[in-house]
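Exam prep: given the inputs below (a chain plus nickel (II) ion), describe the expected output before reading on.
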Amino acid sequence: MSAFPEVTKIRYEGPDSDNPLAFRWYNPDEVVAGKTMKDHLRFTVVYWHTMRGTGSDPFGSATMLRPWDDGTDSVENACNRARVAFEFFEKLDAPFYAFHDRDVAPEGKTLAESNKNLDAVAKVLREEQQRSGVKLLWGTANMFSNPRFMHGAATTCNVEVFAYAAAQVKKAMEVTHELGGENYVFWGGREGYQCLYNTDMKRELDHLGRFFHMAVDYAKQIGFKGQFLIEPKPKEPTKHQYDSDAAACLNFLRTYGLTDYFKLNIETNHATLAGHEMMHELEYAGMQGALGSIDANTGDLLLGWDTDQFATNYYLTTQIMLVLLKYGLAPGGVNFDAKVRRESFEPIDLFYAHIGSMDAFAKGLRVAAKMIEDGALSKHVSKRYSSWDTDLGKKIEAGHTNFSELEKFIMEKGEAASNQSGRQELLENVFNRYLD
Ligand code: XLS
Ligand code: NI
Ligand code: NI
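Solution:
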């Protein structure tokens, strides 16, 4: 039985289409900048919002209508929901999905029972993957919802909770591996602290380093070749999240000798909450070879928490695609860590939300590819730094000079050459012109 009887497979109809159940910009097999749009974008649907989002908020209970859900926490309901999920992925033409262990299967009374539940649902996931060809972009372990993780998971003060977390990640890695997951994500849910009066920060970070090394060792042991990713996020839920932004993550990875094994999964609204633009976070990770994947969403500057909205703004998607085209994305993907508003409670709203954001990223890809091809921004950047292409610039960049020599140079000249305009406003206009 179909869960979405009124929807057939979503197809590309072009920019003039007014069919709300068609793509206007996303044409999966069309080649842009040397690759199909499908291969550039690697669109991914998340299980936690799309299949498990209820619409509840701190002020009110669930609003979502999900006729296929029987409202129980049974394994049978979870298996049935998994089949519905694949009907959704297929009709949307999304090539990938991502999940937390506890989204797909109910948590049991013991870890053994939880693992058994997970195995039962993973069996259905595997069958559905084989039937549909939809693949797993990444798996992860939810180590923030259960009260046992109140002090953190790998950074907890309770050594037995650390052991539990290790066991949970071990299982989540095994399932991700069995399902052919191309990455494995760590978002440090409660890895952080509220108050230094009761916290040994150094010890907690040392434990986090140990935890990740054990994950690397275990991946080798089971032959898991997927990319490990850390997802930076500030503020939520703890005041001082250890992985607050790309810079904090990379400093941590470098300190603990983990840079060879981890890249970053950059999320738009996490960048915003950290006081950065998404483009900044992407470029900061990319320039260090650490751009792994993105959680594609957006926030609301008037709200200020992680609202996980679907991104529909072409400026934003074009900015993102400019950086992704520069560094590449695979084996990562454009992962819609986004949810429909609680007022958008009908199943069909899940389609409208994903179609709109897929189109916005596809449009961003098209515009960014053209801008790169024309050198629309890059030729201005090269010109801006052209003084560094002189003998003096080359000498400094190669490390072949020193303070005394540079002092002598300037003393002889008396003053540095005059500056050129940065032309920011001109380039903002150029950007707009490409969006016409
Ligand atoms: C929370 C995070 C989370 C991760 C996966 O803010 O975005 O959803 O992506 O644990
Ligand atoms: Ni996320
Ligand atoms: Ni988030």
